[in-house]
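Hi there,

I know you've been waiting on this one. I reran it after we fixed the sequence typo, so this is the corrected version. Both the input and the resulting structure follow.
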Amino acid sequence: MDLIAPTDRGLFCEAGDFHIDPWRPVPRAVVTHAHADHARAGSDVYVCHALTAPILRKRLGAVAIETAAYGEVLTRDGVEVSLHPAGHVLGSAQVRVARNGDVWVASGDYKLEADGVVVAFEPLRCRVFITESTFGLPIYRWRPQAEIMAAIDGWWRENAAAGRASVLYAYALGKAQRVLAGVDPSIGPIVCHGAIEPINALYREAGVALPPTRLAHEVADRRAFASALIVAPPSAAAGAWLGRFGDHSDALASGWMQVRGNRRRRGLDRGFALSDHADWPGLLAAVEATGAERVLATHGSVGPLTRYLREKGLDARVLSTSYGEEDEAPPSEGAA
């Protein structure tokens, strides 16, 4: 019997009686991170890393949460469960499940490049590796973070010199804080959307150093917007919220910006290919580091990844799940 198996509620470990990132309510949900497609409402108990818990409470309300530190082993009915750094967002974790010497790892979402904001990805040895495949195509190869941040600073500096605001769309949990930690705050003031500022507070409480940020209504002199960096979720592009900033240039920080056509289809001035997911080389490196004999690819470009791995001699298969709807959905799905 497989240690982890797909069900209509999500990935299920029958021996330990728990689900991993279920997409329907379950009695016990082990959660890799707090993005909405991996941590959904309605379960009786949530198990997560201690840094994920405050974000879950903010999103889901007064839910029952049990927390663990990275590497701490929890045992249920002879099944050992532990959480290990995924490098994705604050508190994100891979789930290691072991029983009678059989080790499985469910990656959740992950990236290999250390971003200096969250705990870096930790390779784990296992027999079966359940991996995401959001960017599972060879075209996706990220430039170093320092280069992307320098490009964002250059765009912001150019706009400030021209007297126009710089509106940068970034996901409220993870991407926005990574951008804030990496840009040069000496260029001008930084304003954050109301969906982002509360997450900033949780990152700061966790000890992450972020530059000073303000909400738009806290800026008394609107002339300050002319040199400001405005950080907002992609959904803000469709509302009236942007009207207060006057003349502005807009850009999106997302792995999908690796393909220039995606930027043009959205009518953006700029696109920065900054992702909190592994690129193609990262996925291959993560798989190799596990030493796994079987690889199950969950969401994204699962076909190309599994075909490539089979050609390399691995037992690689597609595992159908309901992830990827909220975190970094392709532009065609409306969330870029």
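Quick highlight: The chain has two domains: 5-140+277-333, 145-272.

Best,
R. S.
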